[in-house]
Amino acid sequence: MAVMTGPRLVTVAREALSLAGPARGRIVGGMVLRAVEGALACGPAILAVAALADLAAASRSTARLAGYAAGCLALIAAQAAVSLAAARLTWTAGYTSGAWLRSTGTHNLVGPWPGQRGLLAGDDAVTVLGSDTRVVENYLGWSLPEITRLAATPVVAFVALLVVEPLVAAAVAVVLAGGVPVYRWAQARYARFATDHRDSRAELDRAVVEHVDGIEVIRAFGLVEQRGNALARAVSAYRDINTRILRRVVPAYSAFTLLIDLLVVAALAGAALAAAAGGAGAGARLAGALVLALRVAQPLGELAGRLDSLPRTAASVARVRRWHDEQTAEQAPDNADADALHFDGAVLAYDDARRAAVDGVTLKCPPGTLTVVVGPSGAGKTSLLHLAARLWRPTRGYVRTPETIALMPQRPSLFSGTVADNIRAGRPGADVALVEAAARAAALHDVVLGMPGGYDAEVGELGNRLSGGERQRLALARALLTDAPLLLLDEPVSALDTGHEQQVIATLARLRDRGTAVVVVTHRLAIAPSADQVVVMADGTITDSGTHTDVLATSATYRALWEAHERAGRWRLLTHD
């Protein structure tokens, strides 16, 4: 975590404002109002100085004193009005900017192409569009305007103090000058532990989730002590890092807090020097100077607290900025064949991978064809399908696709609602007959009829009321219902028995005959003889392609896979009477 300097503060603010979208002007306007509010906060103190001067000059006119009081009330009312207006403006603008960031981010994800890091880059999309965007919108709508207000008040108060009593102002300036290195020292001490603290907290979260998710296995296999010790180590590590922060960082921040309190002592020292110098009205001026010194000191502690969170804010701003820059990167050229899937030298390299997941693939899947992609685990089959589904942008080369695509991922995503709602997502507005036909084609219809409520049965959050096989069949039915020219299926029959598998294969053949380009990634090869082309992948490249018969004759990899498939087909469960 970097120590925040003045130029760095300005850079973070500028970067954040560039992400405000249509709300940028309102946020800047809100910052101006907050600065005015901060200046108005000094108004009563300045009027008090003038009133004290009048009293010292024996001008004790009731009317004049009443005027000062009225002026203070007017300033307080003006400050409240400006504060309310600024809050309404900046809060709504902050939320507007957050909504714009999420809208543009999600629109680009489901648009023609996602960013290079893509929708499936681990938790990047969730983190950037979720917690990072919340940090940015809170910074724009609250923290940045508040920092402006908290900075304006001591600046205005110090200028007034410099006019009223230069000696007191000089004493305060000396303490402020000493407070800057102390504050930076405190920040630097915390920065040494920030990464360890973040990693330790993440490890603790992971350990807790792993322990809770695996509780059945832990109990079944007697791993309570072993896994409990692993959780205890994560808890102990998190406690230790917090203890080190408490011992080494808190004293540094306490020193800075004491320096702020020393501002009052410095003001008193300056007042003593000014009193020694004497002069008419010295007492009144010194009393007024002390009031202004308090207005200098009061906001600094809160301002320091706001600045402490800026390194984390800067990291979130940088991630959101990088995400949106990637989303607006160069798009793939228009597809000359609107219904075809065409890979042209496509390369996909993940950030943390030693080799490309997809490496220079050129492949065409015309309309009315069934393409089956096979290969060993880690060959790049699913990554190829993700490129075809536009969930990733190719690192190099191009992937040309139809405008609309139907996808059944290996890990299906369901939405809260009914079974029918989730199937109908493949074709909004589809009638009951079409929904039921898709369910039959996916070997789901009989299962649904056995559920309480049938097609109106609720699937629960993320489909948690369904089994893994039922979720997969529902996702398959949703994909089969679509009328998209390109249908992409990742392991569509892995949860089906042989009879239902043949039913799905027949359905895919009918879709192919109707003109749909069907691409299937699978480890189960029963569908391969029906394919127009079988594509064999290894290490991210296509090693062989052609019909089932051709590839069987030329590819040792495919021949081994096919022989394993045939052996599995001969397996039988033997029982004894």
Helix content estimate: 55-70%
Question: What does the radius of gyration come to?
Answer: 34 Å
Low-confidence stretches: 114-123, 572-577
CATH class of the largest domain: Mainly Alpha
The SS-based structural class is: alpha/beta
Distance between the termini: 71 Å
**Averaging pLDDT over every residue, what do you get?**
81
What is the number of domains? 2
Strand content: 5-15%
List how many beta strands DSSP finds. 9
| Major sheet: arrangement of strands | 5-6-7-3-8-9
CATH topology heading of the largest domain: ABC transporter transmembrane region fold
Q: Could you spell the SSE succession in H and E letters?
A: HHHHHHHHHHHEEEHEEHHHHEHEEEHH
Assign an overall shape. elongated
Please tally the helical runs, counting DSSP H or I stretches of 4 or more residues.
19
CATH homologous superfamily title of the largest domain: ABC transporter type 1, transmembrane domain
From the 3D coordinates, which CATH architecture of the largest domain would you assign?
Up-down Bundle
Question: What is the makeup of the main sheet?
Answer: 6 strands, mixed
Organism: Micromonospora tulbaghiae
Subcellular location: Cell membrane
Domain ABC transmembrane type-1: 47-312
Domain ABC transporter: 341-564
